Amino acid sequence: MLIQISSEYDLSHNIWLRDHCRCPSCYHPKTKQRLLNTFAISPKIRPISVEATNEGLQILWPLEHSSDPSHPEHSSSSSSSESAHDSHAALYPWKWLRMNSYAPPLHQTHSESITYQEEIAGPGKTLWGSGIAAHPPSVGYEEVMKDDRGVWNWLEKISQYGFSFVDNVPPTPEATEELIRRIAFIRETHYGGFWDFTSDLSHGDTAYTDLALGAHTDTTYFTDPAGLQLFHLLSHEASTDGAAPSGGASLLVDGFLAAKVLKDVHPEAYDVLSTVRISTHSAGDENTFVSPLLKAGYPILQHDFDPAAAAAAPISDLDAQLQTHTASSSHAPPHSHGKLVMVRYNNDDRSVLSLPESLVEPFYSALNKWHSILTSSEGEYWQQLTPGRCLIFDNHRVLHGRSAFVGQRRLCGGYVSGDDYRSRLEVLKKRYGGSVGSGSGSVSGRVGEKEGPLPRSVWDEGL
Ligand SMILES: C[N+](C)(C)CCCC[C@H](N)C(=O)O
Ligand SMILES: O=C(O)CCC(=O)C(=O)O
Question: Which one of 169, 320, 335, 429 has the largest count of C-beta atoms within 10 Å of its C-beta?
Answer without folding.
Answer: 169
